[in-house]
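In response to a reviewer's request, we include the raw inputs and outputs for one of the modeled complexes. The two entities were modeled together in a single run.
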Amino acid sequence: MESYLVDITLILDSTVRLAVPLILACLAGLYSERAGIVDIGLEGKLLAGAFAAAAMSAVTGSAWLGLLAGIGAALIFSGIHGLASINFKGNQTISGVALNFLAAGLTTFLGQSWFKRGGYTPQLSGDQRFNPITLPFANELREVPVIGQIYYELISGHNIITYVAFIAVPVTAWVLFRTRFGLRLRAVGENPKAIDTAGISVTRLRYQALIITAVLVGIGGAYLSIAQSAGFNNNMSAGRGYIALAALIFAKWRPGPALLVCLMFGFLDAVQFRIQGQVFPIIGEVPVQAIQALPYILTVILLAGFIGRAVAPKASGIPYTKER
Amino acid sequence: MTSLHPTNAQRSEGTAAAPLAIELVGINKHFGPVHANRDIHLAIKRGTVHGIVGENGAGKSTLMSILYGFYTADSGEIRVNGTPATITDSRHALALGIGMVHQHFMLVDNFSVLENVVLGAEDSAFLAPTLNKARTQLKALARDYGLEVDPDAIIENLSVGQQQRVEILKALYRGAETLILDEPTGVLTPDEADHLFRILGKLREEGKTIILITHKLREIMAITDEVSVMRQGAMVKTLTTSETSPGELAELMVGRRVLLRVEKGPASPGKVLLDVQDLVVTDDFKVPRVKGVSFQVRAGEIVGIAGVAGNGQSELLESIAGMRDQLLGTIRLNGEVLSLEGDDGAARARTAGLAHVPEDRLRMGLVTTFSEWENSILGYQHSYGDGPGLDIAKARQTAEEYIKKFDIRPPNIDLKTANFSGGNQQKIVLAREMERNPDVLIVGQPTRGVDIGAIEFIHNQIIKMRDAGKAILLVSVELDEIRSLADRILVIFDGKIVGEADPATADETELGLLMTGSHASSDKTPGPGTLPAHETPVQQTLVKMSPQDLSGKDPN
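The model returned the following structure tokens for the whole complex.
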């Protein structure tokens, strides 16, 4: 019994760790899609954020400056996306895909030319990373069965970004449904003409959404390289930006369900790590690749049939033009 | 009442003999090469209903968009309450007390009424206080003007008439003193239109100024105090309504004499060409929309189906045209049973001698990015050339013929159909369908968004088809149109034919009552699951497949 509980706690603990970048990217996508901008470039922003954070942190030795650099990189990418899709009314999917290519190429190129380690940034340690925080009384409660253990293992002992990610969920829900900004944001993604005729700038609102998107996804990128890992390596976002978009659709563009879906993807990932190399009855040892593919296969299945009718914000993906 | 609107625009100090709410002086507006407004002068007296009429493209909507700040004029001056004003965006217009009810509502469909009303006029960063204040104000507005809407209802669940009330509420909540309504009755039932006019009447009593843009002369005569006529971007004349007539207005609008009434001889019905029995059709969500409809259309007669939009007409038309599968029932064309199942049902219906002018020409009738000649042969392309090749020369020749015969303007077969006016687009569709000499013609909304001049032409073409011995099924939400064209009127309500009338003797109020389900109140139609068990087998099937029964199986 005891060891099962420990196992479960450990899997849940790594679920939380693995879900954090998904949650941040998913909320980021939520802001932009709710405002009517499809952001397939989340993946690229995540990668660019991760690289910028690791590079800055390696150079300055400060994780906080690294975080700022990560956000900055995502902001630049968001700016390009905004220019292409809001001002020049270009195709948002193409702009996003272009940004993904740009991020993949640029991070490798800059990484190699700056650090000469085959695209890796130097190993980070100490203050160059966000280290786990021990919450009050965690050590004292450690010995208390079940509750104490859960508190110690699962709730305490994460880095600051993890807590930020989880707090961002209710904050997003509140902003979206309880504030003037949220009302306008939702409206501009559904019917920008209603916003325009009410005398509010569609362009400005959409840029505001993109800025929030960049901040969140930049934090997510920084988490990958300077919190979860100790440095950047090539293509370390590994499709998380896309999974976050899938989670967003699965959650039907709502913050609460988005959290649950991201946790579910994180859980699958955690289980995947856990069952690698295990020998199963009848099947025997399952190839690592098959297990690693599990979360992605599930994504396809869920998207294909199990989510029912997911109605995207109506104006999503459509540049706004005043028509005659 | 005015105490409700503390944010009202400044009132003019000198209230002269005829105080003007709005004055437009020498307004000009170009869109590229198009001179949409030419030196417009217009004076609108406070506390009146001022009509603006004109054909599509006459520049009415552009002019009002300038007044509302959606566009800026190239030159000219706008005076609000006697003071010159620069209106560069909608916010300025709102601050000056000018509100607009757009033809296509500017509402967010999945928001509540309350959220839509406050959108853009929130008092603070947090919503709660604004929503509470708006709730109280909506109650007061509802009481004062008969603008009842449930503040918590979601827009997409409201009827079109209710949605329009939300638009009016939006403007009043923002303290509008002058209200611009753009084609407000285009989507309303006669009943809803009457309700709207009562509301407008009350608003006028309270001293509000109303600008009514419409092309329906009957409405102009009924409610306005003054009327201005526009033609081709210019202001032709402003008249006092009581001293003019629909005939005079129509002539001013079109620039020539127009016949407002359709002239047709008596019908001489022959044999039954279209026979529909017990037809049941569901919509895309498997909800029954046509619930056991039976009727016949004979050679040489026009049968009109009248009803409020959304009562199954669209599904009925689409199913007879072969675009939508039927659940039950048979359709006979010229005595032969039409099999319409499958994706090529529409093609088979065509081969059998049925032509279809769809309700929505942009969505179903035309490919707007195709040129005129390509659209002229859509659906009949197989008769142009053998095998995979297309006999383009022959197709272009056909298009040229149609253009001449139907006076389609501009006479350019290479122009994209998107660039034709609504009336000419409709003529392209009509020419294509009528010139194939079908036995049965089904027509949906033949003159929706079409100018007076073109309406006259289209009506005459339909009558001509009838006199040539064709069977014509006509569906329109314009009761006037049905009454003037049809030889028999069938009234559809909630998917069922609830009555038949002779257009010559039918009483408009009675038809209106039938159209809204006479006995039941209009907005509470009995759901499909509430049919009594002793009804016909068809209806029992409907009960069985009602959404309530499906709810357990279908996650949606």
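As requested, we also summarize the result in words. Residues 127-145 of chain B form the longest helix (19 residues). Chain B touches chain A through 34 residues (CB under 8 Å).
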